[in-house]
Structures are given as structure tokens and as C-alpha cells.
Amino acid sequence: MSTEVAIKLPLDTVAIQRILPHRYPFLLVDRVTEFSDDGERCVAIKNVTINEPFFVGHFPGHPVMPGVLLLEAMAQASAVHARLRLGQLDREQIVYLIAIDRAKFRKKVEPGDQLVLQSTLLRGRGRIWKFRGQALVNGEVVAEAEYMATLPPPEGEGSLEVAAEGAEAGA
To answer: Which of 22, 58, 62, 81 is labelled catalytic?
Structure first.
């Protein structure tokens, strides 16, 4: 694993889109503000606005960010984290979420909130990575989870199913 690539922070949405394939309205990371020297921790920001398309139906007159999108935002921050740790900043790559554990939603997230997405690497070897994510608003944890992800192999070198089997075996 290489963390020797020069990383100039903060990363803005243009830089993030060079790393992740997500695009509006599903890109849920606006900025990456921290990446630890040892590659174990990464912090990103998501500014939550009333213009988010999910607020139209969740819930009319009482907008609340869906919990599943809080998980997705944390997972996207961790996908950037993995790519930064590997030093792979030259191209987009899909990172697949393959397991979620210990998910908790502690407070609602509303328009005007700024999510601070903290990603901590618990284990990263080969294609299977495990992270602990926390989403905070004003310093308070609003959501947290542990989750696993896989970086798919290059064309012709195996499959996602093999990586998922490794996750089930506790890789």
C-alpha cells in the first residue's frame, strides 16, 4: 500500500470526481479535508441543502436526510480514503460496498446541516477493506457504522463474487 503520493488538501468536488465515479445527485462528498500521515483516517464534508432531490419526498414539510444516504455518504468518504491510501488518484474506480454492520442513527439530519464524515480504516488488505464511519453534525455523532468494501479486480482477474465470498469468510 502506498501513501507516498503527494496529496494536496482539501480535495474539492472536481478532484473527488477524478477518484469516484459518482455524480450529482448521488455524489455525497463535497470536500476531503483531512488524510492522516499513516493513512488510517480520512475526513470529508457533505453540505446538506434543501435542494437535495430526496427532500421532496422525505418528508414533505419535514425534510430529513434518509439514513441509507447517511450510510452511502460515509461509504463514499471511505472509498476516497481507500483510494488515497493506495495512492490511486489518477483515475476513477468503483468501490463496492459489500457489508454493513453496527449501523446506528442517533439524530436527524436536516437542510443546512454540515456532515463531517470520518472514516477510520480497521483493516485493508488485498481487495477487501473494512472501515468504521461516523457522520457528525456540530460535533455530535448523528450516524455510525462499520462496513466492508471491495475494489474490483482489473478486467479478466477474477470477479466481485470471489471478493464477496472473502468478506463472508471474514477476510
So the answer is: 58
Q: Is 58 annotated in the active site?
A: yes
Tell me, rounded to whole angstroms, the distance of Cα 4 from its chain centroid. 21
pLDDT of residue 67: 98
The β-bridge partners of 143 are 105, 135
Residue 129: C-alpha distances to residues 34, 38, 78, 168 (Å): 19, 16, 9, 12
- The DSSP H or E segment spanning 131 is strand 128-137
pLDDT at 102 over 60: yes
Domains of the chain, start order: 13-168 (3.10.129.10)
Question: Whole-model pTM?
Answer: 0.88
